[in-house]
Amino acid sequence: MIRIILADDHPIVREGLHTLLETQPDFEVIAECANGDEALQTAARLKPDMLLLDLEMPGKDGVETMRQLSQMPQRPRVIVFTAFDDDDRIIHALQAGADGYLLKEAPRDEIFKSIRITMEGGSMLQPLVASKLLRHVGQQKATPRLANAIPQVEELTERELEVLRLLAQGMPNKEIASHLIISERTAKFHVSSIMSKLGATNRTEAVALAAQRGLINLNE
Fold this sequence. Notes:
It comes from Dictyobacter aurantiacus. By secondary structure, the protein is of the alpha/beta class. The protein folds into two domains: 2-136, Rossmann fold, CATH 3.40.50.2300; 149-212, Arc Repressor Mutant, subunit A.
């Protein structure tokens, strides 16, 4: 069972999303929050597996909420669930630690898939979000974390490039291991090595940096 907290300042959005998620036998919505402060307090108290987080909320916004969540001993995985698709918001959210980024217009099956993939350790970006991210880094308009990334990167091994391509497909470590016929522990080691070499703080940023450097093509 995936225990989920919803954080959005619009009650009708929370109610609709709550009803939608409860149709899935492996999802349990354990709380609803109307702002970032409430989300932080509730997450600290209930220790959810997943937080679906809006970006624009009164008080602490989604980005600041994620930054403070990262200081928790047991940080929940976070999927940004928002109506905003501009480049800067996407970049800031990923840098703050978002494990995924979904637009509120996303189909229900895509929402379900993203939650499950993210909980398994993967990372999923909608095609529209991925294309905006690529255009942003390609034009060197990213925020300092991406635009000023380490200019010289230690070369990835052939196996790491294989893992990277699967990582770009949103595969969690278990699926990467199965696909490459290696142990899950080995897959995790390769993912950590890739992130270290690219100077990334999470899997999504690693994919973005790899695309920026031409190591993978997210449009394929």
